[in-house]
Specification:
By secondary structure, the protein is mainly beta.
């Protein structure tokens, strides 16, 4: 009887242990993994060939990705994909959620100007050509226009004064160009007599006129119908800064250390502000303030009405890139290798992020509702 009891108890213990082992097995849900949400990010590229995605509120790094060469062109976002083009003309399609590079292609020439977004495609200056590239067709060209001289500036888009079709405008060497956006066909090309090289990208915010600065120190206003010169305003040195046009003002920086606000219709001076060194940074307007950087290491905020100084913020090196502002925060990068976020009203620092290398391209901010781009971009509204 004792032996039988032991057998029964032993069998019970064995069954209990088997059940326990089975109950410890991992079980897996048959549901799909949760998708990574699409969130706002600040995107920047440094000369160590690294693309960064940062959280806009804190500057926390979300991810980084590597490209093959340095980048001068500001990144762009189309249909929630990030596109970066390096100086050798390699284009990268990057997943903004995790930094994975989903496609690359050589465009066949160097790229310095920022791509223009048009019809979910990219108008890109490549060497001495301008091409409309389709990211959804293996980056193949929809059209190509040969300028015959290096195109180092950023194209932009608007309608001409007497037309309704979208027109792409750009400057290269001593010429101004207008192309049909849909086909790349030349609408007009105008050589500017007496001008130096155009290293300032063109502004087409006003559909009647185009504005561009020149190495001869002149700010030019062109008729959008034919490229003829409407007026010029003389500054004291070469203009590398790209002008913006808002509220009847054309605002641009010059190597003579001045930021100018000129009447858009007459070319007469409204106000000017003197920094301590050259201004090649392109200005950005937000909430009645105009922001720009200088080679004197400062980021400036001026009252757009009269040009009076509101505040300035000292970085640790020159600022040649273009700032941008959104949600009461101003973002910019300096040659001190840092990305900065400031309170746009007071200039108080919110955060800084060191990328361990200089940055030649301006940053962008991509939000859930769309991208906020610097004025060096042809998609800037002003």
């Amino acid at each position: 009887m004792t032996t039988l009891k032991k057998i029964v108890l032993g069998s019970a213990a064995l069954l209990s242990m088997m059940y326990s082992l089975q109950s410890c097995k991992k079980t897996y849900s048959t549901d799909d993994a949760l998708a990574i949400p699409y969130v706002a990010s600040v995107y920047a590229v440094n000369s160590n060939k690294t693309v960064y995605a940062l959280e806009p509120g804190t500057g926390t790094k979300r991810w980084e990705a590597k490209v093959n060469n340095d980048v001068y062109a500001t990144p762009v976002v189309i249909s929630r994909k990030l596109y970066v083009v390096d100086v050798a003309g390699m284009i990268y399609k990057i997943n903004p959620k995790n930094g994975a590079i989903e496609g690359t292609k050589s465009l066949g020439g160097p790229v310095f100007g920022t791509p223009l977004v048009y019809d979910n495609k990219l108008v890109i200056p490549i060497g001495s050509t301008v091409k409309l590239i389709d990211p959804n067709d293996n980056f193949n060209a929809v059209w190509s226009y040969t300028a015959g001289v290096p195109v180092l500036t950023t194209p932009t888009i608007n309608v001409i004064k007497t037309g309704t079709d979208k027109t792409v405008f750009f400057v290269a060497d001593t010429n101004v160009y207008a192309l049909k956006a849909a086909t790349g066909a030349q609408v007009w090309k105008k050589g500017v007599t007496g001008a130096g090289i155009f290293n300032s990208s063109i502004c087409a915010a006003n559909s009647n006129y185009l504005y561009a600065g020149n190495d001869d120190g002149q700010l030019y206003a062109f008729n959008s119908n034919d490229g003829s010169t409407y007026w010029t305003y003389p500054t004291g040195a070469a203009i590398k800064s790209s002008p913006i046009s808002i509220g009847g003002n054309v605002i641009v920086g010059s190597n003579d250390r001045q930021l100018y606000s000129v009447d858009s219709a007459t070319g007469l001076l409204r106000w000017k502000y003197t920094a301590a060194d050259r201004i090649s940074s392109s200005p950005f307007v937000y909430d009645q303030n105009v922001y720009f950087g200088s080679n004197d290491y400062n980021l400036y905020a001026l009252n757009i009405i009269d040009g009076t100084l509101k505040w300035k913020f000292l970085s640790f090196s020159v600022i040649t890139s273009s700032p941008l502002a959104y949600g009461n925060t101003l973002y910019f990068n300096s040659y001190d290798k840092n990305l900065y976020a400031l309170n746009s009203e007071t200039g108080a620092q919110k955060w800084t992020y060191n990328t361990n290398a200089t940055m030649n391209a301006s940053m962008i901010l991509d939000t859930i509702s769309g991208s906020v781009v610097p004025s060096i971009s042809g998609n800037y509204p002003y």
